[in-house]
Amino acid sequence: MKGVERYAGFTPIDLVDRTWPGNRIRTAPRWLSTDLRDGNQSLANPMTPERKLMMFELLVDMGFTEIEVGFPVASRSDHDFVRMLIEQDRIPDDVRITVLTQAREELIEQTIDCLKGAPRAMIHIYNATSPVFREVVFGMDRNGCKDMAVRATRVMMDGAERRLRGTDVAFQYSPELFNETELDFSLEVCEAVMDVWQPGEGRGIILNFPTTVERSLPNVFADQIEWLGRNLSRREHVCLSVHPHNDRGTGVASAELALLAGAERVEGCLFGNGERAGNVCLVTLGMNMYSHGVDPGLDFSDISAIRRTVEICNEVPVHPRHPYGGDLVYTAFSGSHQDAIKKGFDELERQALTRDLPAGELPWRVPYLPVDPKDVGRTYEAVVRVNSQSGKGGVAYVMSAWHGMNLPRGLQADLAAKVQAHADAMGGELSPSLIGTLFVQEYLYHGDASEAAGWHTPITASLYVDGAFDHCGPRADTFRTLGALLGPWGIQVRVVHRTGRSLDHEELEPHQRLLGGCSREETVIYAECALGDEVAWGVGIDADIATAAFLAVRAAGTRLVRETHTSRAVSVAAVGH
Ligand SMILES: CC(=O)SCCNC(=O)CCNC(=O)[C@H](O)C(C)(C)COP(=O)(O)OP(=O)(O)OC[C@H]1O[C@@H](n2cnc3c(N)ncnc32)[C@H](O)[C@@H]1OP(=O)(O)O
Ligand SMILES: CC(C)C(=O)C(=O)O
Ligand SMILES: [Mg+2]
């Protein structure tokens, strides 16, 4: 592409004995949400006080104990929001608010004043340290840049000492554009800042290393973090924090590799809001940990509610493909994915029965779904959505999840072909209720008894029972009744397969009751009839199994006769059990 020569590559870090690639993330880091600061400053329409409060309360509810609530000198609304939190006593005892300020004396004084009356707070000072900032923005050398940070720390300590007497003041320093700064210079500035702050027992410091504009591969950032961890003095009093941005789309990877490399704290925003391509997404990071069996220490159990609140506060929609929280991320449209998902759920249910445990307590092993959607408050209903890319597994899933019917394999294929033809003809997606309507139209008996008059016997039906078979009395009685009903037509019923557990209408949501609002237990019988190479399926639903079977065979036989345009003998194959 034209112009590529204008961009320089990045220099790898000389750290041949790096250890981070062999490490694992075993515990959650300390989290800081910067939604109300870095997130807010990136919005075309910054949050109103109401939206800020909504975000703050969400963060508290999710379990954040470190929340950057603003840049008080940036605007009256930032200032007033911090004051409101303090004056209205809205900061829970286990939460520490943080405020950000540039390393400029006049701004620091005002920032301190804004914190008056807070029981505890963190003052976060930053100045840019990279060569391009030193040369282009500040016009100063390394020493000048370091002095800026040192002076700011002194001013902050002095001001806090004098004007924040009742406040437990903690301190965080960030060399902005750390990832573009020479490593030895970042270290030099941080050491100089620590010389002023004098970290020690009960007086820690947070040193926060941002990829202010992400420019290199995540492994380079990890090397930088491991190098710092080895070289910082007073290490036991330093909390090594990272603040990745997502300019290259690798913010999450940068954070994760930094954790492997020794980072202890991560700053970011929910759903990756923030400057340009965003701050690192804390939802993705936390849920990535959860999906590996590491408790993130944040509550994502109603991820849709979190997303809704974030969307209201930011006025920025969350992408439907956003990891873990997007509308479509627990949905498969394509046939082979749907088939594997259905088999995964079936196996989970089998295991639950065998081990007599709720399915929700079993190890999660469902293909194509990284976590159980229910763990984040999503349902299983949207896991499969049907269009022209779908196959029998998907259609069977919809029939089971939405309509409580566990179709035998042959009927799955038969219905899927009809659904596919419909999808091809209409384009787009077929809703579960439309699939249910197609099913009813195709397979249930709609005629009257005379329609079957053309049948010339004998018929042997292969029946599949789905539902309350166990509630229908001894099998012998059932077969006798069926014989009496079907016998005059010469239909022999030899085999009954189970396809699923009882269909209990009490368990189904109203939209799942394919045939209306009945509340008693019913039996579904699927009948497979063959005439030469032709096969037809019929379905009967009734509280009485014999009636259900009768209706199913009539439906199948009628369709077969109609489809083959013949009234010659219908033979029905028996399938062994
Ligand atoms: C990566 C980040 O997200 S950092 C946080 C960024 N957030 C914000 O900037 C939002 C809030 N900011 C503001 O409201 C304003 O920028 C203020 C109030 C902080 C400062 O306002 P102003 O004094 O009008 O300055 P302005 O916004 O034009 O910034 C330029 C000044 O900041 C200085 N500056 C810029 N970046 C930095 C930095 N990283 N560290 C220290 N000083 C800096 C510049 O040198 C310049 O100073 P100069 O006027 O002496 O040349
Ligand atoms: C203020 C700092 C930490 C920042 O937001 C950044 O560098 O991205
Ligand atoms: Mg930032």
UniProtKB/TrEMBL annotation:
InterPro entries: AIPM/Hcit_synth_CS, Aldolase_TIM, IPM_Synthase, LeuA-like_post-cat, LeuA_allosteric_dom_sf, LeuA_N_DRE-TIM, PYR_CT. The keyword Lipid metabolism does not apply. Mg(2+) binds at D38, H243, H245, N279. The keyword Zinc does not apply. Keywords: Acyltransferase, Amino-acid biosynthesis, Branched-chain amino acid biosynthesis, Cytoplasm, Leucine biosynthesis, Magnesium, Metal-binding, Transferase. Residues 29-304 form the Pyruvate carboxyltransferase domain. It is an enzyme of class 2 (transferase). This is 2-isopropylmalate synthase. It comes from Nonomuraea endophytica. The lineage of its organism: Bacteria, Bacillati, Actinomycetota, Actinomycetes, Streptosporangiales.
